[in-house]
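## Example pair
The file below holds two records. Each record gives the amino-acid sequence first, followed by its C-alpha cell line.
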Amino acid sequence: QLGQLVGQLAGAVGGGYGDLTDPFPEDSGKQTNKNYDPGKRDKLEGDTKDIRKTWKDLDAFFNSKQPPAECVPIKNAYEQCLGETGSMVLDVQKQLENSHDDPQGAINSLISMMGTSQGKIDVAANESDQLVYRICRKYDTFKWFKISSDIGGGLMGGMGGLLGGLGG
C-alpha cells in the first residue's frame, strides 16, 4: 500500500512529484504545469480513503475473534504488530494527503519515519511468530507459515531512495 501511494504521489502527473503537489504553479509565480490532471489527484485521495477503510475493517475483524486462553499472548503480540503497522501506514497516508499544502514538510516527515518500524513492528512480529511456533510444537503440529517482521529494513526503510529523490 505504501509503495502504491508514494508511487502515485511521485508520478501521478507527467512531470512528477512537484507537479502533483503544486498543480497550479501559476499561483506561485512558477511556470504552469500543462501535464497536471486533477483526476489523478482525486484518484490518489480516493485510494487513501480506501486504505484507511481497509485498515479499520481489518482491525475490526481481528478483534471480533476471541482466541482460546492459551493463545491470548499470541493475539496480544500480533495485535501490537498489526496495530503499529496500520498506524504507520495511516501516518504515511496522512503525510501524502497533506503533501499538497506542504510538500517539503511531508517529505521531511516521511524521511523522519524511516527506520522507526523495527522497534514498533518487528519485535512484536517476531514475538508472535515464536509464540505460534511454541503452540504448534506443543500440539505436535507443523507450523507452515511465518509471521514476518518488516521486510526491507523497516516499513519506511525501503522508501529511502524514492524519498531521497523526491527531496531534491
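Second record, same layout:
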Amino acid sequence: MNYLEYFKSEISDPNTNYFIFDSKGDAGIGDIDFEKYSWETNMYNKAKSGDLIIFRRPGSASETKKFYFYGAAKLGSIIGSIKVIAILDKPYPFIEHIHMQDLESFAWSFKKKGVDWQHFFNQYGMNQIHKIDFESLMNMADGDADFIDPEAATEAHQDIQQGNYSVEDRLGTTKIRSKQNAFSNKVKDQYKVSCAVCGIKTRLFLVGSHIVPWALDKSIRLDPKNGICLCAFHDKAFDWGYFTLSDDFKITTSKSVGDDIVITNELSKIDGMRLAKPTVNLPKSEYLKFHREHIFEKFLN
C-alpha cells in the first residue's frame, strides 16, 4: 500500500499539518520509533492530534554520522500539558531511507536552504513543513510500496532495536518481504549506503546481504551483524560462494569459477582486499566461519 492510500483521509483533510520530528529512538528519553514521541510544549506547541510527521534520525544518532529520514506516522492522542507524549498511529517505515546526500537538489518549500545544512533544521528537533514537502519526501521513499506491509516493517524495525532477530517461517510473503526490507535498510545504513567491496553508492544497486542465509537460521534473520551491504554483483557472488571473508575481513575468491572471463577478471580485482568495515555491528566471526565452511565454493559448477 502506498502512502497516498495509507494516509488518504489525513492528506485530504485541510486541517492536517505536516512536520519533521527528530528522533534518536531512545526509550530512555520517552521516544520509541513508530510508537510514541515526547516533547515540551513550552519549547514547541504547534503539533496536534491528526497531524502527519516524518522522522529524521539526526547525525548524532545516525549510523552514517549524517542525518536521514526513515519513516512517517500520524500523531494520535497527546497526553500531558507541558511535557507531553504523543501516541503514534499508522506507522509507515520507508521502503528506502532518504539520506542527506539524496537531498542536495531537493526543492524545499517551507524554508530556503543555504549552501549547507547548518541551521536548516530547528535545533529543538521539530520542524513544521509544507504539504508539498511532505508529499515530495514520501514519493522519494515509497519505492515498491505495494509489496510492503507497514505493520510488519514496523515490527521488524523495533525488533532490531530491541535485539530480537528471529522471524518465523509461517508469515506470508508480504510480511516476510517487509521484514527483510527493514533488515536491508539497517545494514545499508551501517555501511554508509555503499558496497563494502567496490564502493558503489547508487541505492538501486545495493543489497543488505545475509552472511548466514535467511533460510538456514530463523533466529538471526534480522541480526545486523549477519549483514553486509553489497552491490548486486558482489551480493550474488557472495551468496553463491564465489568469495568469502576471513575473521579480519580479508577477501578470498574461488579459483573455480568456470570459464566466464569477465567474472574471473572481476573477482581477481578483489582477491586479498579487505572489506570496508561498518560504522556499527561488525560481522560476527561465527557467521563468517559458517560462510567459509558451508557456502564458499559449495555451489559452483
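Notes on the second record: Residues 173-190 form the longest helix (18 residues). The beta strands are 18-22, 36-40, 52-57, 68-79, 83-99, 126-129, 206-210, 227-231, 243-245, 251-253.
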